[in-house]
Amino acid sequence: MTIDAVLFYVLAVVVIASALVVVGQRNPVYSAFALVVTFCALSAIYGLLGSPFIAVLQIVVYAGAIMVLFLFVLMLLNVRREEGPKRSKSMRVAAGALALAFVAEVGYVVTIAERGSGSATFDASTKPMAELLFSPHFAYTFLATSVLIVAALVGAVVLAKKDEA
Fold first, then answer.
1. Residue 120: φ, ψ to 5°
2. Residue 71: which pLDDT band, with cuts at 50, 70 and 90?
3. What angle do CA 103, 52, 35 make, to 5 degrees?
4. Residues sharing a CB contact under 8 Å with residue 47, sequence separation 6 or more, in sequence order
5. By the 8 A CB rule, do 135 and 67 touch?
6. pLDDT tens digits, one per residue of 78-106
7. CATH for 3-81+121-160, options being 1.10.10.10, 2.40.50.100, 1.10.150.20, 1.20.120.1200
8. What is the per-residue pLDDT for 20?
9. Which SS3 state, helix, strand or coil, does residue 12 take?
10. pLDDT surpasses 80 at 140
11. Could you say which of 18, 53, 55, 97 would form a disulfide bridge with 47 (CB–CB 3.0 to 4.6 Å)?
């Protein structure tokens, strides 16, 4: 096993563990910080797979801009620790079955990947990506996303505003 393979598996464990913390954490701020760890480890995996542009994009866009927006909204709304619902036995059985299915799927993907030929690489040069993203087709998607983000921020401000009446 090469050092790249060992590093890949270590980063994969970090991604899965931090993603489980994101889902399982009751404090939303801790969950958001665990999501930053997930994004950074995922960026390192992209770098190992030979895609430095996607790795940097992952850090700048997701770990940088989107997480700042999430934390801003969380702190603006002053979200407290989540009060968990009562968990029934059927929910626990369903969660266990889904976890088992997830482990089986990961095992299947790992065995298929080990049978594959060579290491995976991505063609992630900037020119074809820029031509695709800045084409007229995706311009509307960017505009719609920006309007959605502004609407979410306005909604967060309205929800955070104290009733003075």
1. -80, 135
2. confident
3. 45
4. 55
5. no
6. 766 656 566 678 888 888 888 888 888 87
7. 1.20.120.1200
8. 92
9. helix
10. no
11. 55
